[in-house]
Structure formats: C-alpha cells, structure tokens
Amino acid sequence: MFKRTLLVLGAVGGGFLIATAWPGATDALRTRLAQGGFPTFGPAATASPAPTAAAAPKPEEAPRDEPGLVRLTDDQVTKAGIRTDSVKGGRLARHLHVPGTIVPSANNTARIAVKTQGTVAELRKGLGDRVAKGEVVALLDSREIADTKSEYLAARLSAALQKTLYERDQSLWDKRISSEQQYLRSQASYEELKVKVDSARRKLTFLGLNPAEIEALPSLPAAQFERQEIRSPIAGKIVERRVDLGAAVGRDNLETELYSVVNLAQVWVDLSVSPGDLPLTREGQTVTVWTQATDERANGKIVFIGPVLDQNTRAARVVAELPNPEERWRPGSFVTAEIAVSDKPVRTLVPSEAIQTIGGKPTVFVKVEGGFEARPVGVGRSDDGNVEVTSGLEPGDEVVVANSFTLKAELGKSAAED
Fold first, then answer.
1. Which is it for strands 88-104 and 118-123: parallel, antiparallel or unpaired?
2. Compositional bias of type Basic and acidic residues: which residue ranges (predicted)?
C-alpha cells in the first residue's frame, strides 16, 4: 500500500515537471500533465477523444468595387451637386482679358454752342432731358443777329429792285431803244447785289439759322429780329448745362457752350492692351464686355487701335463700339473685356471642370452602369473654359462636368482603405 502511494506521488510530480519544463510538448499534453494526468496504455489509449465544439464559420467578405469605379446613391449625387453632360464637338475660342472703361461715343456727342454775342433769354431743357435732332433748346437775344438779318433783307430788296431794272434795260437793249452801256451797267449792279445777298445768307447760316428760317425772315415781325433759336445738332440726352437764364454768352472770353448732348444708343469701351498682346488684336474683332457689379454682358467690335503707346501705362488704346439701346452701360463704368483672338472647331470638347489629375494623368469621370468610372484621357488645346479631348472619350459619352472633385475624393478614400 505504501509502495503504491509513492508511485502515484511520483507520477503526479513528474507530470507537473514535464508540463512546466518541456516546451516541445503539445498544448493538450501539457494541460493534461499539469492536471495530473498521464498517458495510459491499452484500450483506454485508443478511445476516441472527447468531442469538441465545432469551429465557427468565417464571415463572408463584402464584394469589392472595381478599380476606378465610384458608387454613389442618387441622393448622394444630388447633395454633392454632381452634374453630367454628353460629350460633343464645339469650338475652341481663345480670349485676351483686358480692363476697360465705358465712355460716350465721340460720334454721338455734341456741344450746343452759340456763335454770336448775346444774352440767354430762355432755357427750354434741363439735365437729363431728351432732345430730338433740330429741336429748339434755348432762345438768345443778340444785336448782332438783328443786324445780320436786317443786312440780309436790305440786300434782298436791293437785289430784287435791281433785277427789275436789269430786265427792263435788257428788253430795251434787245429792241435797240437804249444803249448797250446802260444794259451792261444794270447787269453789273444786279450781279453785285446778288453777291451781297448770298454773303448775308451765308452769315446767317453761320450764326445758326437754317434755310427755312432764312426764307421766313421777310414775314418775321421786327420785334423778333433780335431773337435767335438755338437747336440741338443731334438727338440724345442733356448731360450738362453750362449757363443760367440771363447769362451773357458769346465771344470775348464769354461762355459759348450752353449744353452738352450725348446719344447713348452706342457707347465706346476704352481698352488698355499691353504691347505683347497688341499683335493679336485687329479691327473688327468681337469683344465681350461685362461688369462684376451687375454681371451684365454685351458684345461689340473693335473700331480703332491706337498707333502710339501711352507714356504712363505703356499700353495701347483700343476702342470697341458697343450697342446700348437700353442705356444700361453708363459712361465712366469700369468693365472687363474679352477679345476673341482665335476660334477653331474640335471633335470632342469638355469643360475644364471635368478634368481631374489622378495619378499624374488627366482623368474624367464617365457615368456608367452602377456608378462613375475614372477614365484617363488625352488632352489637347484649351481655351478659357473648355479642353479638347484627343483620346479616351467619344461624342455621346456622359461625363461629370460639375463637382467632379467630389468623386476624386471618394476614389482616393477607397484607395486608402484598400
């Protein structure tokens, strides 16, 4: 009995020693030995091991997206502001961007002035009033006008009387009743008076009277001889009034201008073009003008290119004519102008926003079934807002033209997760 007890204690101690000091033992053997177990022989050694719990199946991996494909729901596309459009042909137009200023057209600007000394008797127009061509805008009292009208009427009466005498002497000479000398003297006097009438008429025209006014002078009351009507030479709007009622005007250091009239149906755009860009400009080129204040746009044409550079800015003056029927473009406004310097047709054209650089290559996102495909493309010429695609796209392909950077970010996020 004592002997058997020693054998059991030895076996347990040996098992514990093997379990702790035998690194090569299997986990099952080490555990069993540590628990005091030991190998058995015979039928017990061949018995089937105790059943263990079945291993849990591994979870299935989610299918991976194809490389370069971004999947977004319709709601995500809407929230991101992603917009697509079909690839099509178009024209590449290159532009020069230059600063400019709206100014009145020199062809549609006039100053209403007097050509004789006098006093302003009436002012019929004020600032901002519209006038028609030939409309009376002021009345002037002038002694010089009265004297010139009287001179004309006197010369006209003398010429009419001398014409009668000349015709009588001509008739008598034809009948050989009077002498030829008398006839020739009457003819010379008549021709001289005709010259005086023409001279007085030209003087009245110079002072501002039109032919109808001159012809009406014989029936004009004497009290109106000093009165002169001042008319506008063009249709437009009064933009400046320089005199007041009763002011003395005329020569000898007196004011001669009464009003300034501008027709704003057409305006000029003064552009400053650098010497390097000057060879690209020519008369007749289309110019698109816009202002940041109102974002209004209009098209005009270059009508003048200055041959001399400005000494201060070292830029050339280029003038474009701009239609302005609604008078939206006000003189003095600062604008930006685009001068079209080239215009060429291309087969495939996409907006510049559609091009993203991915992996050092120009790439566009093409709408395909299931999402958006990042497709490398070859690019050619470009203008201010579009790029020519030389390879990778065909007309009709639907590409992202707005907020494509969102897809680029999503593609980069997917690559980082991989």
1. unpaired
2. 58-67
Domain extent for 127 = 110-259
**47-56, 130-139, 353-362: which range is least confident on average?**
47-56
Strand partners, 363: 356, 376
Q: Is residue 56 in some structural domain?
A: no
Q: Residue 4 to residues 7, 45, 394: CA-CA distances in angstroms?
A: 5, 22, 95
The pLDDT value recorded for residue 264 is: 92
For residue range 304-326, what is the model confidence (pLDDT) as tens digits?
998 888 888 888 999 999 999 98
Beta partners for 297?
290
pTM above 0.85, yes or no: no
pLDDT value at 56 more than 60? no
Task: Measure Cα distances from 172 to 150, 178, 180, 192, 367 in Å.
Answer: 33, 5, 9, 21, 108
- What separation in angstroms does the CA of 347 have from each of 55, 367, 402? 62, 20, 21
Do 350 and 333 reside in the same domain of the chain? no
233 and 130 inside one domain: yes
